[in-house]
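Posting for a labmate who doesn't have an account.
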Amino acid sequence: MSGKPRLHYFNGRGRMETIRWLLAAAGVEFEESYLEKKEDLIKLQKDGSLLFQQVPMVEMDGMKLVQTRAIANYIATKYNLYGKDLKERVLIDMYVEGMFDLNDLLMTYEIQPADKKEQHFANMMDKTENRYFPVFEKVLKDHGKDFLVGNQLSRADVQLLEIILMVEEWKPEIFSKFPLLQSFKARICKIPTIKKFLQPGSQRKPPTDEIVLDQVMKIFYS
């Protein structure tokens, strides 16, 4: 298990997308092994690769890492995306935990039953607009710097940009209320490693469609 990190997941966003974002922002090339059917997941479970019998799983530095937050913490620490001291790190952790809460809402929209989708969408957009985005708008205003924490890029910036772009796919007009988030997005998108990840042909995954959703259901819920 040497060389480039290898990501084990289905060919879609899900919980692995944040990990892809962090690796890409750090300028780290990675490879992917896609789960295509339930048997692929069972094989990883049976050969002992999955500590808690679930993915995401990332092979890197001689380890088989599971649990999204643990993987993200490791990558952020290794590639200097975790602040310069303990106080910066706790701020990053606070912001990122809020982002994970919002991201869970956004990610689970696609798997809602048809009769629940409209209610879920309204709820996630209400919380985005009235609970989460106002926090980050205020953080940027109070901090007065280019980044959420300190004076350099951190995982909080990367993960916020990921969420901003996801929300923009559904409701671009929401950003008229958040001018600092708009300028933050424009600024972070210009960082060379991130700009590269946003180009067509990168390993960034497109929005989940019916084909990916059908595959997810077969792998995890059949």
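Reply:
Got it, the structure tokens are right above this. The CA atoms of residues 137 and 178 lie 6 Å apart.
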